[in-house]
Design brief:
By secondary structure, the protein is an alpha+beta fold. The protein is 36% helix and 13% strand. The protein has one domain: C8orf32 fold (Roll), CATH 3.10.620. The two termini are 28 Å apart.
């Protein structure tokens, strides 16, 4: 997948990007992400673009999506071919079933988990972390010549409520693809992340099995509040450092989550260097 080499100066001045686009508290949380600060995953957070009226036209322009032919040299290219169906939608379903199976069968305690690494390394060790599994799904789809990008969802009305999904481009239409829960935005029509932010009924129908299984309706619906986008070109050089849980996340995972910030996120003073 290939981004334009530049962004129009006037537009770049008004598009919101980076750690603080969801507010100060989430900015603190993102700065303390458990991925290595030099990794591709942390770089996604550093450069993510908020979807709003200023960025919508730019982010939803399908004309710029071309997968580089060098994708054939990716570590997962041969592996990915087993998921190729008779259509793009069938290929998506096959990969969604595969990533969901990884999530369901993973049972390592959080404090013993590893994060980041190449997509092949993530598959080999397993994961139930949405950011890592989304990158795996994104890579597998691109290896099938299906454009796919990474998206961060945040419920700005609740603390610690974030999630990573992807968006696939099929016949000039963007469709949400959630590799963690194994669902994608297709009902009577295709649903992009942009359209789901405006349609809670569609979100509930798409995630109905997950909502019924895990009794987390409020959490799922709340995630489609705000979204930020990242392109992931697998053919470029990236840093795939692996990391362990940091102290911030170890503390966060032990909290009694009631929708409020508990670790000083909304009171910190941002340094000019970050």
């Amino acid at each position: 997948m290939k981004w334009p080499e530049y962004i129009n100066l006037e537009r770049s001045e008004i598009m919101k990007s980076g750690f603080d686009i969801f507010g100060k508290a989430y900015g603190f949380m993102f700065r303390n992400d458990l991925h290595d600060e030099n990794s591709v995953d942390y770089n996604f957070i550093r450069k993510m673009i908020l979807l709003d009226s200023d960025s919508e036209e730019y982010l939803y322009d399908p004309s710029k999506y071309i997968i580089n032919k060098n994708i054939a040299y990716h570590d997962l290219y041969g592996f990915a071919q087993q998921f190729k169906g008779t259509s793009c939608l069938e290929s998506m379903r096959n990969i969604l079933a595969y990533t969901r199976n990884i999530i369901v069968n993973f049972n390592l305690p959080f404090e013993d988990m590893m994060f980041g690494g190449t997509e092949k390394e993530i598959i080999e060790r397993g994961t139930d972390w949405c950011t890592d599994i989304s990158r795996v799904g994104c890579a597998l789809l691109q290896c099938l010549n299906i454009p796919c990008r990474m998206i961060t969802l945040v419920n700005t009305k609740q603390a610690y409520n974030g999630h990573t999904v992807c968006e696939v481009l099929v016949e000039k239409q963007f469709i949400m693809c959630d590799f963690t829960y194994g669902v994608f935005g297709l009902l009577d029509k295709g649903y992009s992340v942009k359209s789901l932010l405006r349609d809670r009924d569609a979100v509930e129908k798409i995630y109905s099995d997950i909502i019924n299984l895990e009794n987390n309706r409020g959490y799922i619906l709340g995630l489609y509040d705000k979204a930020a986008f990242n392109e992931y070109d697998l053919t470029k050089i990236h840093n795939y450092n692996i990391s362990k849980p940091n102290e911030y996340y170890l503390s966060m995972m032990k909290l009694n989550h009631d929708g409020t910030w508990k670790l000083g996120e909304n009171t910190y003073k941002k340094s000019n260097s970050v």
